[in-house]
From TrEMBL:
GO terms for molecular function: zinc ion binding. The keyword Membrane applies. Signal peptide: none annotated. SMART domains: LITAF (SM00714). It holds the Pfam family zf-LITAF-like. This is LITAF domain-containing protein. Belongs to the CDIP1/LITAF family. It comes from Trichonephila clavata.
Length: 85
């Protein structure tokens, strides 16, 4: 039997659950949307990022005729995932 002392009460405990962010690849992925709460397959959009510009600068320094290649290939581009709804 627990003995309670005056002025000492059990304090409620707060449990915090930390969910790590989901890492997406370059392909559309099935996820539960955080806004609409539906299970959807993401829509992907490729955008020029730092890798594209750095590759273009390197190509410009060494292979000037091939400077445009990073801008037309998908390998160097950043991918943004969107909910289709």
């Amino acid at each position: 039997m627990e003995k309670s002392y005056p002025g000492m009460e059990m304090q409620p405990t707060n449990v915090t659950v930390v969910v790590p962010p989901q890492v997406f690849g370059k392909e559309p992925t099935q996820v539960t949307c955080g806004n609409c709460k539906n299970v959807v397959v993401t829509t992907t959009i490729y955008q020029n990022g730092g890798c594209v510009y750095m590759s273009a600068i390197l190509m410009c320094c060494f292979f000037i005729p091939f400077t445009f290649i990073p801008f037309i290939t998908y390998q160097c581009k950043d991918v943004t995932h969107y909910c289709p709804t």
